[in-house]
Each structure stands twice: as C-alpha cells, then as structure tokens.
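Practice problem: Helix-turn-helix domain-containing protein
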Amino acid sequence: MWKQWRKPNRLLLLYFISYVLVILLPVISIGYFSYRLALYTAEEEISRSHINSLRYTGTTFDETLRKINSLTVAIGFDSRLNSYSANMDNRYLLNEVQDMLKQSVASDRKIHSVQLFFESGGQIISSDVLVHDYQGDHDDRWVDMIRQSEQDSLWLSPELIRNYDGHEESIITFIRKVPFGSRNKVGYVAIHLFERQLQGQLKQMQNMENMNTYMVSAAGEIITSFRQADVSTGVTRMHLEKIASLQGEGFFTDNHDHPSSLVAYSSTLWNGWRLVSQTPLTNIYEKLSYIGRLTFGFCVLLGLVGIAVSFWLSRKMYDPIKQLMERTRSYMSELELKDSSKHGNELSQVSDVLETAVGQKKLMDQQFRQQVPVMLDRFAMALLQHRLSDTEIRDRIEQYRLELSLRGYVVIVIELDYAAELAQRFTNKDMNLYQYAIANIVSELIQTKTHYKFVMTDISEYQQAVVMNVFDMMEAEELRDLAQHIQQVIGDVLKLSVSIGLGSVYANIMETHVSFQEALQVLKTKLLQGAKSVLIFETAGEMETGYYSFLQTGKQMTNNLKVGNTKEALAILEGLKQEIALKQLSPELVYIAYNRLLETGIETLLEHNGNPQELFGHDTVLHRELAQLETIDDINLWMTTIIVKISNYIQEQDNKNNKTVDKVTSYINLHYPEDLSVEMIAEGVGFNASYLSRMFKQHTGRTILENLTLKRMEESKQLLLETAMNLHDISMAVGYNNVNSYIRFFKKLEGITPGEYRKQRMGI
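Answer key — structure tokens:
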C-alpha cells in the first residue's frame, strides 16, 4: 500500500519540476533577451543616426578638401609660376604671383594663407605679401616634409602658427608639388587652413549630449575634433588605430571602459581621412532601466503563473499515465513481453510495447514497399490488357496509394531499336540493367518536366509501356516534345536508340487498353519511318492492308539472276522499296513481299546447284534474320547483300558450267566410238549424272545423248563420203553396235538413209 502511494507522488513531483523548468526557463530567457534586444536596437538606431550624420558631414568635408585640391591644381597650372621661376628678379612677375595667392585666400574663408616655394632661388612667397628666403625655420617645416615625400601632394597634421598680430592659430596644411602633371617640378604650393573652421563643420553634427567627433587621418592620427565630454585618451587612441584598419562605414561598441562607448565611423574621404564619433552609453542605460525593471516584474508574474500551471498539468498527467500503464500491461501479455518494472522503471514497459509495435509496423511497411514495384507492374499490365473493372481499378489505386485520377490517360510505348543486334552484343543481365536504367530516366523526366502521374511496366524484352494520367486532354505536340526529350536523354546517357509510339489520349482509365493497342500499332510503322522515330497514332496516315501482288517482281528478279544481271536485279530491289513507301503498305505486306523475293532468290540458287547453307553459313536462317530487321532501309540493305551473293554465285557457276560443257564435249569427241552412256560420260568428267544432264541441257539446249548422237552423225557423214566402208563398219566405227540403230538415227536427223546420203553427195 505504501509502495503504491509513493510511486505516483514521485512521478507527480518529477512532472511538476519538469513543467516548472519548461515554463520558467523560456520566460526568463525571453525577458533577458528582450532587454538585450531593446538595448541592441537602441544602439543600432543611434549608430545609424550617427553614420548618417557622418555621411552628410563627410560629404561637406569632401567638397572642401576637393576644392582645396582643385585650388592647388589651378595654381600649379598657372604659367606665371614657370615664368617667375625662370626670372626671379622680375618684380612685375612677383606682384602677379602675389596677387594670384591673395585671390586664392579670398576665395575661401577657411584658408588662412597660401605660400609658394621655388627650388631655383630657395624663396618663399606668401599671400600676406611677405617674401623671404628659406632658412629651415619651424614655420617653414612644410618644405622639408614635401621634399622628403615621394608623393605629389601631402596633408600635414594641425600645428600652432603665430600670426603677425601675435595670436596663435591651429593650422592644417595641404602641400602640392608644382607645376601639376609635369616631371620637372619648380617648387611647392602650400595652403594653410583654419582648424577652427573645420571644427565648426564637426559641431554641426553634434545631435547628442556628450558626443565627441574626430577627423582622423589614414594613419589613425587626429586631424581635428569637437569634444563635449572627457573620454580617455588611451581608449580614443585604441579606437582610432582599430578604425584605420577597417573598410567602409560602420559602428561598434567598446566595453573596455565604463560606461561603454558607441563608436561610429564613416567611409574614407577623398584624401583618405574619415570621420569618427564616440558617444558614452550612459543615457541609453538610464532610459532602458525602466524597461529592465518592467521586464523583471513581468517575468516574476509569469513565473508564479507558471508554477500554478505546472502543478495543475502535473495532476492532469497522472490519471492518463495510470491508464496507459494498465493498458501496457495487457498489451505486454498479448505480445508476450517480459515485465521490466522490476528494474524500477515502469515507463520502460511502454517503451518495450511501442518498440515491438513499431518494429512490426516497419517490417510490414518494408514488405509492402518491396512488393510495390511488382504490384504496380501487374497493375499496369492489367490496365493494358483490360483485365480490371472500374471498381477493381479504384480499389487498386487506393491500396497502392497512387495519386491517380480516373480521367485523362495516354499510353507511351518505348521500344529499343536494333533488338537483334543488342541481343547478340549483350547478355540478358545487361539488357535487364538497360531496361532498369531506361525506366529510371523516363520516370525522372516525367516527374521533372511534367506534373503528370504514371505507372510503368515491361511488356517485352525490348518494350516498356508508360500509362500516364494527363488529367485533361493533352495535345499531340506536347506528347511529341516529351517523347523526343526522353529519346534524347536515353541516347546521350545510355548510347541507345529507341523508338516511341504514342496512343491517343482517352478520357476514361477504362480505355487505357485502346491507347495501348494504338501505340503498338503505330510502332509497326517504324518499318517505313526508320529507327529513332516518335510515332503518334493520331497523326499517322492510313496503311495499305489488302492483298498486293508481287508476282511480276519475282519473275523479273528470277530472270535477271539467271542471266547474271546484278545491276538490274538491284534496281528491281530498289524499285520495290520505293513502291512500298509510296503505297504505304502495312508491315505485314512488307515482310510478305521481301520473304517472297527471298524465296525467289533461293529457288534460283537451287536451280543452279547452289547450297544456301554453304553460301550464307550453316547457322544462318535467312527468314529469321529477315524477320529481325526493323526498318525498310535495313531490310533493303540486307536483301542487297543476299541478291549480290546469289548473283555472284550464279555467275561463277555459269563460268564453271561452260568449262564443264567444254569438258563433256571434249570427252564425247574423244570417246564417241565407244558404247557410251550418260553415267559413263558423267563419271569420265567427274560429275553427278543427274546434275550434269540438267546443267548440260540448260547451257546447250540439248541433252548429252543428243550431243553424242550429233557427233556420231557428223563423223559417219565424213566416213560415208571419204571412204568405201560399208554401213556396218561405219556404224561400228562411230559407236553403234547395231547398224539398224545407226540407220534409224541418221534418217531421223537427215531425213534420208546413210546410203541415200552417200549416193546423193557422190552423184552416183
């Protein structure tokens, strides 16, 4: 009982402390950072105001300095300087130069005086009409300074100069070598400025109490200043050295001294000087003290409210956790988990239950994700084959979590070109990898180039189909552009050629199979259009699908092959290609035409005792090779090779047969007195009797026996006319064993008997 009472209170205390920390820490943090933000905002606003003032004052100073520079340039360009430098005894020129200097002083009330020094005479001319020789006095130190400088112009820091009336003035000096723009310098011009005039300009920007403003040189030296408060010289010097190394304009807060100071600085002026303001932050701290006290009080109030809310939330958390623990124990028994509360942490039971449940959920999700590609592939195939009802399609879309609608569908079929060649070059594993790569490319392009959803499937080893949900009716040109882009990327990345068939866009998903059949049908026209084509069913023309006779073409091809007219045979082949393209025959009729033409060539080859396997290879199946060709250009090229081989073979055979005929004729001429038969003659010349008879008949128009008979008759005629041999001896001499046979053959050929022939010719 005591144990059960302690655990909830310990848990309640833990929640209470947690809520207190969660609520109070943000309140304290917000209060602190709010105060700091107000302080920073005030500092930034003041610094921006100072920078704007510095920028405005800097513009005024820049104009003054540029004006002084322009004045020295004008003096340097004055021709009277060179004239006086060349003739320093000329009083007239001296008066002219002094008048010029007086006019320069009169042009600007900031100018105290103007002096000229001439190197040739060592003489210094002043605007106050004083002329004296240079002695190296302290008042003339500016001459030494410019002599030691390699620059054409030089600014000197302020220095006290005693006027002729005995008063001292703080003077800033600007020196320039003259004449301006010439390498041969005749002397130097010095313009002395009242520092109090520059201080007057600094005073104009004193928009805050205790603000101090400085004009600082590029080396960090103070040119002039306007001070309203005592600021440590060491701190000021450190600021100036830091600012000398910075670029542009800006501000920073110095916390080295108390109170802290806000330092703002301008961009560099024309001559490298810049303006610096330094303001103690005492007033800001005093004005923000009220905000700090208000923030502290607000934080205390929120803290008290937070403690009360924390206690209430802690109480509200206990009952749900108690119920959770009870349910956890029941779930643990169902999941057969061990009780971990013995280790002093009851909440670990909840963790065990959640880990087990999440683990099982992840396992189920992983199994589902592994099956998704297969399921999507089957779903796409079922759509293409029209095997799903409208309800089944809806259920599958919901089950597979597809973002597909039921309207607006088109099917794109992607087919690898030169499939037979690819099958010889690559293994099945390689082809599977290529199909996988093509699927990835198509998926990425559709996702990045369009907003359409889709599913894909492999419909054959070399074909893939994309079922694309285009929602609204999609224009054919838009489809063509997408297909051409897919074609280009596949070619660039995989170095493969593909043709793409596009079906029509249909409003309902149930008509997907119609678009698929259209895409397959239009892909067949690749035979006439060529490889790497984008074929759109809507724009494809009608193809001739009826009967078409190629009998005359076959006869012409046979006749030309028999006579060895290769050129004419190839012309017939080219004519067939043009006729097919002109009539737009269907792929079926095209393959029928070329198959018949191939059969004609093979029959002609066989008639000439040719063996297709020996001529084209024992492993070659010509009709299968023809069926694997995908375009009419490839077919025509392949058929050209076949026709040329057959024609060349027939010509070679004709040459060989002519020699064989001559050989048979010679054999007959030599052995005609013997009792000969076709078999004996064939054996004598080394050929098959049937082939020899057929070949001899084709080339001579007579049979071998007819040729033998003619030879015997010719020889017997000669014997009848030139000898007195009787008919029996003559018949035996020319190869007849029976005189009656000889007389019968002679009469058949000549129309009269041998005896009558002898009488007629000899005039008996």
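Discussion: The chain has a mean pLDDT of 80. Students who identified this feature from the tokens alone can consider the problem solved.
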